[in-house]
Amino acid sequence: MLRRTTAVLAALLLLLTGCDVVGSLPAAGGGTTVDRVPEGTVDGPTAQTLLARLAVAEPGRMSGYARDCDNGAGCVFGRPWEDVDGDGCDQRSQVLARDLTDVRRKEGRCAVESGSLLDPYTGDTVTTVSKIQIDHVVPLAEMWRSGAAAWPRERRVAAANDLRNLLAVQGGVNQSKGDQTPDEWMPPNGAFACQYGRVYVTVKAEYGLSVTAAERGALERALATCAA
């Protein structure tokens, strides 16, 4: 249902604006080079090897999935942006400080109040922090339907806050992605296809998550754009 809703909204936006906001895998080499991935991301050849080892399966059911944490809701991945490592800085602030340049924090606090982001998904520069969102490269709903539904809650909370799966990106493009997988959505900035595939496979392999046949095909195409 979440995938269908996102697709309908994207189609409506395309009809109104004439702009394809989700698109398919862009041509290799097209776009703005943003050679930035989280620490711990595997390289291209390793990603290809790991991808070949991932189990191929149809997506599981979404029953029981609830991201909302308010008013007694399910909250299956915990509250957004917990301080999971106990260093006094929540995960959102850590990602902003990692991915932005010219970072300025609020006085006496961890929170980032200003900085500049070269958005890997669009190649645009964003200088307003309120317009920046933190993307789960492997969406949490996708984690749920590819294996996380069977995990204990503590493992899901850890996965939701794993810095290897988090990127600071322009908010609008993050909204267009929703919970779609690489066969349904890839970054409009084609030059980031390799890096996106590497991050995605790193996380799927780390947590033993499955992929669909279409998802694996899209990831193979993305990784094929990596330089030898």
From TrEMBL:
Signal peptide positions on this chain: 1-27
The GmrSD restriction endonucleases C-terminal domain, residue ranges: 91-219
Classification via Pfam families: GmrSD_C
Signal recorded as keyword: yes
Keywords, in A-Z order: Signal
Keyword Signal (UniProt): yes
Protein name: GmrSD restriction endonucleases C-terminal domain-containing protein
Species of provenance: Saccharothrix longispora
